[in-house]
Amino acid sequence: MLKQMLVNSSVGQAALHLRDTVELHRAVHGQREALGCLANDILARHLLDRLCADGAIFVDVGCHIGSVLAGVARYSRPGRMIAVEAIPEKVVSLRRRFPDVEIHECAVGDHEGEVEFTIDLERSGFSSLDPALKDRIRSGRVIAVRLTTLDAILPHEGIDLIKIDVEGAELGVLRGAQALVAASRPVFMFESGPQEMEGFPNGALWQWFEDHDYDVVLPNRLAHFGPGMSRDIFLDSHRYPRHTTNYFGIPRERRDATRLRARALLGFD
To answer: Which of 60, 122, 146, 172 falls 20 to 30 Å from 83 in CA-CA distance?
Structure first.
């Protein structure tokens, strides 16, 4: 509860920075193989907070307690922020702490309906639509939630940046966003880990981006030249020691502009 209260404050942002510093220190002096993945994830968050174009729309899918919303509001100047969160208690808290953000209480995928959603009571950030989750956790609760699509709840134009973190169901979210992707061609930052949800394999996730003329890029490659990740490289990046947890999907026609913006954000000449 205290973490939720502090997240939208200068103290909360400082605490996140301190946490990142401590985790990097531990990796340097402990599990060095994980250092690259950790550094990329920290870099991804730094870029995400600052990448949205001025006056454009930022969308946070899988909002959790709102730490990403707080970072984007603090370091960027979006014209509108929209969040999606499936857990009712979190939605109540988010609406109280972020009154200027449009918050949708639902899960999103590639169709409309009602689905079971498993809440991990020990680590609520890992809650998921994945039916197999309840067999992997020690303490959980299953609730019924509304499932809809991004195309049904979001404007189709004016969206610049979308973050997706839905614990394995990212491909379903993308499949339900065909109209807005065609109209806005947004940049995505999305999570992809080694634990695959049935029906949403990592190879198919990469293929969605390829089919829609996007490059998949590691955070530490966003500010640099070079091709996007091939399917084989993307899949290999999920093996231990992983390259990252968070990837960027960049429309190929926006690759140069995004690279230049990332370079400026990172202080490159």
So the answer is: 122
- Say if residue 182 is exposed, middle or buried (CB neighbours under 10 Å; 0-12, 13-18, 19+): exposed
For the record, the structure tokens of 169 come out as: 């169901």
**Residue 132 within any structural domain of the chain:** no
Task: Indicate the residue type of 73.
Answer: A
pTM summary value:
0.92
**pLDDT (tens digit, 9 = 90+) per residue, 181-234?**
999 999 999 999 999 999 999 999 999 999 999 999 999 999 999 899 999 999
Q: What total number of domains does the chain contain? A: 1
- Nearest CA to 97 out of 126, 73, 123 is that of 73
Asked if residue 150 lies in contact with residue 176, where contact means CB atoms within 8 angstroms, the answer is: yes
Q: Is residue 68 part of a domain?
A: yes
Range of the structural domain that residue 170 is part of:
2-76+155-265
